[in-house]
Amino acid sequence: MTDPEVEAMAVVAGALGKLEEDAQSRVLRWAADRYGVTVGKSGRLGGTGGVADKEDEITDQDITAEDPVFEHFADLFNACQPKTGEDKALVAAYWFQSVQGSSTWQSARLQKELKNLGHALPNIAESLSNAIKRKPARVLQLSKAGASKQARKTYKLTHEGLVYVQGMMAAATQ
Question: Does the predicted model carry a pTM greater than 0.85?
Fold first, then answer.
């Protein structure tokens, strides 16, 4: 006799195994909403926007006033352990904006740092666009130099983007 719970887990694992991490998160959020279940802190998907109870989310109060000191971008990247392209771009943006003190930045700077670590993104503009489309937005586009689609754009992290990266740091240390 087979266990229906084990069979369901096998089906879910097979279906999710074929998807990218972003898609896995969306499917799991949909399933949790559809079936009215919540997943606590232990079920979190490590900073990828996975399913979690509202009280398990990182809040402004959870973020310390003083950020950890990182001498190199690699140290910050390792502390955050980003998995998705969007998260990698956000960590690189955090490096320039919060650690290096640049109020704005361009995607080419982020891509250069990610490439140096061996984590270059296939389309960093798409990763940043996804962060812009989130509600609330994690990134804002401030300007665009030129009329073409490939024109240089200037960005900045929003408060939500900064808190999100700090949350990745906190989640990675737990």
Answer: no
